[in-house]
Amino acid sequence: MISILIIGNGNVAHHLQKAFKKINTLSVMQIGSRNLNKIPFADITIIAVSDNAISEVSKKITNPFVVHTAGNFDLKSLQNNTRKGVFYMLQSFSKATDVNFSQIPFCLEAENNEDYLVLESLAKTLGNKIYKIDSKQRKLVHVSAVFVNNFTNHLYKISRDICSHNNIPFEILFPLIAETARKIEVITPEQAQTGPAVRNDTKTISNHLELLSAQHQEIYSILTKSIQENTHSQKTLN
Amino acid sequence: MISILIIGNGNVAHHLQKAFKKINTLSVMQIGSRNLNKIPFADITIIAVSDNAISEVSKKITNPFVVHTAGNFDLKSLQNNTRKGVFYMLQSFSKATDVNFSQIPFCLEAENNEDYLVLESLAKTLGNKIYKIDSKQRKLVHVSAVFVNNFTNHLYKISRDICSHNNIPFEILFPLIAETARKIEVITPEQAQTGPAVRNDTKTISNHLELLSAQHQEIYSILTKSIQENTHSQKTLN
Fold first, then answer.
1. Which H, E and C letters describe A161-194, residue by residue?
2. pLDDT digits (tens, 9 = 90+) for B110-166
C-alpha cells in the first residue's frame, strides 16, 4: 500500500484524489494548503496549489518525496529538503466536468531513475499516456498548450461573436472545428493548411478585413502574415 | 429524375459528383471549366470553380438554374440570365480524404422560396445539416471559418514547431486539442476560457514570452491582449 497526500483544494487536487481513491493499492489523504501546521506522513506528497504558493508550501514538508503538478514551475524550485519530482497532467480541469484520466498525458520528472519509476507506476494506476519531460521541456509544453487551448478557444470565441451578431447559429461551425482538430492527428498542420492566406488570395483577404472590427482585423492580419511567412520560408527551404 | 451538371475539376467538384452519382433520383454530368463551348443541358448547373472564374463561367450558361459553391461570392454576381442560387458546403475538402456529407453543413441561398426548396431537396439527398444563409451571412460564415480552421490550424503548427525543436512529441497535445474542440459544443468559448491571459497571471505570461521567438511573441501578445480586453469588457457589462 502506497500512501499519497494531496495538498490543495483546486480542480487538480479534487479530480486527482477522486481518481486515486478508486485504486486499491493506494491510500489517499487530502488537506488544504492553509492547513499545514500538522502535515500527515505519506510516501508521495503531491502539491496541487497555485504556482506562486508551491515554494512556500514545499518548505514546510518533511515527507520523503514531494512532487508538484504545475506546468510552468521548475523541479529545482521545490524547497523541501527531501526527494523532488513533478507530476504534471496536460489537460484543462474544471470542477463541473468529469475527467477521463485514460486520455490525459502525464508529464513526469524526477531527480533520478528510481524516483521516476515510482511516479510512472503511480501514473499507470490512472492512465497510459506517460512522458518523461524535463523542466525546460515542460515549460515549452505549457506554452504550446496555451496556443492550442487558450488561443484556439479565443478564436472560437471570435467566430461565435461574428456569428451571433449576424443571426448565424454558431453550431454551423462545429463540424469544421471538429474536423480541423481531428485532421492534425493524421497529417501535419503544414499539410492541412488551406485558405486565403496560404493561397495568397489577396482579394478574399481584403474582403474579409472589410467585414471585421478593428480588433479582429489586427488578429486576422497578424495570423495571415505569419501563415504567409511560414509558407514562404518553407518554399525557400525546399 | 433531376439532371445535374457540375462545372469544375477541383476538390469540391470531384467529391460532389462522386456523392451525387450514388443517388438514384439524380443524373450527373461533370465538365471542366475550359470546356464551355458546348454546355450540356441540366436542371441544376453547379459551378464549382475558383472564385475569380465564377463570373466568366456563369456568363456562358443558358441552363435554367445556375448555382455556385463559393463562400465569399455574392449570389447577385452570377452573370447568367436565368435563375440563380448558392450551394455552399462548409468544410475543407481535399482530394485525398473521403468526405462524409452527412456531417457537412449546407448553406443554401436562392432568389425565391421555390428555388430554395429545390436546393434544399438536393442537399437532403446527401446530408441533413441545412441552413438558409444569405450572401452577407455567408461571407461572415466564411471569415469565421478562417478563424476556426485556417488560423486554428496555424496555432497547431506553431505548437508543433515548438515541440519538435525541443524533442517533445507533438502527439502529447492531441488530447488537449481534441478536448478544446469538443468542449465548445457543450459550453460557450467564454465559459471554456482558461489560462494565464484570462487569469491575468502576468508572471506566467512573461515567462512564456521569454521562451518564444519574436514572431511567436507577437502572436502570443496580441491574442493575450484580445482575451484580456474581452474579459474586461464582459466584466464591465455584468
1. HHHHCCCCCHHHHHHHHHHHHHHCCCCCHHHHCC
2. 999 999 999 999 999 999 999 999 999 999 999 999 999 999 999 999 999 999 999
Record the cell numbers describing residue B176, joined without a space: 488537449
C-alpha cell belonging to residue B54: 465564377
Here the cell at position A9 is 483544494
CB B61 within 8 A of CB B81: no
| Residues ≥6 apart with Cβ < 8 Å to B19 | B99, B101, B126
Question: Are A223 and B189 inside 8 Å of each other by CB?
Answer: no
Residue B144: C-alpha distances to residues A56, A58, A172, A230, B76 (Å): 45, 46, 10, 22, 22
Euclidean distance between CA atoms A37 and B190, whole angstroms = 39
Within 8 A of B162 by CB-CB distance, chain A residues are: 140, 143-144, 147
* CA distance linking residue B204 with residue B90, whole number of Å: 37
Which helix (H) or strand (E) covers residue A97, if one does? none
B121-136: buried (b, 16+ CB within 10 Å) or exposed (e) per residue? Answer: ebbebbbebbbebeee
Please give the Cα distance from B35 to B7 (Å, whole number): 9
CA-CA distance, A204 to A237, in Å (whole number)?
27
Q: A17, A27 in Cβ contact below 8 A?
A: no
Residue in B92, B131, B188 closest to A194 by CB: B92
Cell 434544399 belongs to which residue? B120
Indicate yes or no: pTM above 0.90. Answer: yes
A178–B181 C-beta distance less than 8 A = yes
Q: Which of A68, A144, A78 minimizes the C-alpha distance to B195?
A: A144
- Separation of alpha carbons A201 and A189, rounded Å: 20
Q: Please tell me the distance from the alpha carbon of residue B157 to that of residue A96, in angstroms, as a whole number.
A: 31
* C-alpha span between A112 and A82 (Å, rounded): 13
Closest CB from A148, A168, A229 relative to B156:
A148
Cβ partners under 8 Å of residue A218, min gap 6: B222
Cα A37 from Cα B185, distance rounded (Å): 44
Average pLDDT over residues A172-181: 97
The verdict on a CB contact (< 8 Å) between A145 and B173 is yes
CB of A211 within 8 A of CB of B143? yes
On whether ipTM exceeds 0.90, the answer is yes
- Beta strands (DSSP E) in A83-227 are 83-89, 105-110, 129-132
- Residue recorded with cell 499519497: A4
